[in-house]
Amino acid sequence: MMSSPRQRAAPTAPPSELDPSRRNNLALITSLVHHHRVLSRAQLTKRTGLNRSTVGTLIGQLVALGLVYETAPTGEAQVGRPSPEVRPSPSIAALAVYPEIDAVTIGLVNLGGIVQKKIRFATERIPSAREAVNIAAAVIEGMRTELEHSYRITGIGVAVPGLVNPDDGTVRHAPHLGWRDEPVARMLSEATGYACQAANDASLAAEAELIFGAGAGRDNLIYLNGGASGVGGGIISNGMLLRGASGYAGELGHTFVRTSGEQCHCGATGCLETEVSQGRLFELLGLSGGDTPQLEQALRASSSPAVAGEISRQLSFLAIALRNAVNTFNPEVIILDGFLGVLYALAPSALDDLLLSQAMDGPAAQAKVHPAALGSNLMMIGAAELGFARFLADPSGFGAALTA
Amino acid sequence: MMSSPRQRAAPTAPPSELDPSRRNNLALITSLVHHHRVLSRAQLTKRTGLNRSTVGTLIGQLVALGLVYETAPTGEAQVGRPSPEVRPSPSIAALAVYPEIDAVTIGLVNLGGIVQKKIRFATERIPSAREAVNIAAAVIEGMRTELEHSYRITGIGVAVPGLVNPDDGTVRHAPHLGWRDEPVARMLSEATGYACQAANDASLAAEAELIFGAGAGRDNLIYLNGGASGVGGGIISNGMLLRGASGYAGELGHTFVRTSGEQCHCGATGCLETEVSQGRLFELLGLSGGDTPQLEQALRASSSPAVAGEISRQLSFLAIALRNAVNTFNPEVIILDGFLGVLYALAPSALDDLLLSQAMDGPAAQAKVHPAALGSNLMMIGAAELGFARFLADPSGFGAALTA
DNA sequence: GTGTTATGTTCTTTGAAACACCAAACGAAG
DNA sequence: CTTCGTTTGGTGTTTCAAAGAACATAACAC
């Protein structure tokens, strides 16, 4: 019944555990080392399914290109010859840029997702695309000596809170920033000389959590972030980020959750992000605003029944959106970030119960809600991942270009 | 900035246009021929990105294995040497099985998605899993002589209206059939001796429409079918069927569309399939039931304002579900089948307008609603695709096994 | 110590695909 | 109707990533 008479496994595609978009096995190994930060040669052999000798050769090439380095085996003592450990080179790095309504944050992130540097440039008012690009370019210019001496920069990734076409890095519409049809990637690339790509912030956060955070080792994940500018979502299915026809997929903030709900800025009514917002909570708490930890503290301190009622109201709407998501995606993990994470932390079992009772049995049984694991570095890591993308797709070409 | 110093394109993964899950280039070519039914060698060369000589060698192997055959070039006259046409062998086929509440349909489908034979076995009552398997096995047994003489059967695919784990072909829950935890694939495999796999019917329909129907050439597609047993959905993103952690993804019938809506059999309230159902329409029309064409005829003939109201009510709920889907998936095509296709046909611009006004600008601009293109053969083609899956993943192994 | 096990190392083999070159089959131009 | 340019198929050669075999090495277990 089975395939049978094949002399050996198809040499073009070994049983890889990573997404199959990898160009070749050199890229596969680079990605694995990037994702795991440390991996013994023996582990790499198992994960890739390649032959021991092949893995040895490939690592040799990566070492020669200066992309990874090997250290003496320090793993737990066990029978057999110890296997050297492979780590990403600390000199490979990507730049991350995250424009928000009150700041532009620029980061320097190592291979392995280690945030080396994070510079938050606060702005008086909402930055225009041009301003955000200028700020980022200036900060990067300030780092340039260091960058050129100590690092090999693979690219810049920009995380944008809005609809972004990742093919050309154009922001179609970022409502809270007031941007429309801004070719941010091209602008920043011209201003800095580095290759640049842009994508939706929540999508990048989802990828970051998939690789380094609460979704590590999973293939199906939903990320939802609640912030001052609404609710953003990123969906990873079968190990791959859902892009859609133009890269706009993942807008879970505009899931319908309420009949005759309020009008959303998107034009529709009853969207998740109009019914579930941190603004309503701050208002009830008598605060004019604040960040997520402040919100959590205030909510925990409050004994107002109105606040409690609003919390449970928002949780019930959140449950409806999550019910939909669970039924349509059958994820293993749902990651709640920002004030949605706070809402969950306040009443985890309440949301879990709502989800279990509303979602379909099969999918509901598997979906586990988690708070985000990467904290304040999340967006830097996610955006940097975009800056690493082309490098990881073809490390040999890049390594050669970088060493040249 | 670009990769540059690589002597040649990575030989392991040419710029293929198909999904990257293909094991090797032999499989790639087989799939292309299967999907397009006719393809000249020159076209195959362009599509695969492989070298002319490589394509020639590969086709030679496929011909030797009896999987495809070549015919004299009949293409439109143009400059240059004419290229022979490659077609799938008519002897390769898969079996399709589709159990419903009132019948079990068995089909024989050629490579290329041509339905050779379709046998609908009507049942007095809802068939149990055992009964459905016995019926299918009996019909297949009846065809066995023919099958063994004239065909090489690659496998059986079962389309099940319910939650199916495609890994082991177990039906987790098919509410309208009343099945729970039935290992249908194993049962049918044991009963017939053919390899068998099972999956959700709407998911298979989505794949069929993607390959041969209204979604041909697209990569992002949503399929929604409305039938007597509710609303089923299948989602194709980035050219791949959304599976989810256990293969339960795609249940768009249980999208939330109404606050304080009726209780759904799934446990939640306000699901699309409780608010939008053909049962309500039949009731208002004073009919006890019927099939889709009958419904369309009756709806078109009716002048009752109650019926018109119900149609627009159902369309508005459908629009909400589609709005969600468009925002989260950014599809190019939305395919409406069954009575949902009828609803759309009655007032296409009404639904289009609702969708345009409610969904977010970016994604909405691209999503086009279409009726299903494959008609009554749809489910046979989809299920057969499942029966072809393992063959297409490794045609060389299969070809050898089949010729042996 | 000695045996066992797991791994790294080196050299050879393999096979899929590219490549270079030539032949074939067409339309277009004169 | 001949010639030319173009596109494709066919054949033999070359390339190169990966497998495989044999050997070396470094740990544990006793």
TrEMBL record, chains A, B:
<protein>
    <submittedName>
        <fullName>Transcriptional regulator</fullName>
    </submittedName>
</protein>
<comment type="similarity">
    <text>Belongs to the ROK (NagC/XylR) family.</text>
</comment>
<dbReference type="InterPro" id="IPR036388">
    <property type="entry name" value="WH-like_DNA-bd_sf"/>
</dbReference>
<dbReference type="InterPro" id="IPR043129">
    <property type="entry name" value="ATPase_NBD"/>
</dbReference>
<feature type="region of interest" description="Disordered">
    <location>
        <begin position="1"/>
        <end position="22"/>
    </location>
</feature>
<dbReference type="InterPro" id="IPR000600">
    <property type="entry name" value="ROK"/>
</dbReference>
<dbReference type="Pfam" id="PF00480">
    <property type="entry name" value="ROK"/>
</dbReference>
<dbReference type="InterPro" id="IPR036390">
    <property type="entry name" value="WH_DNA-bd_sf"/>
</dbReference>
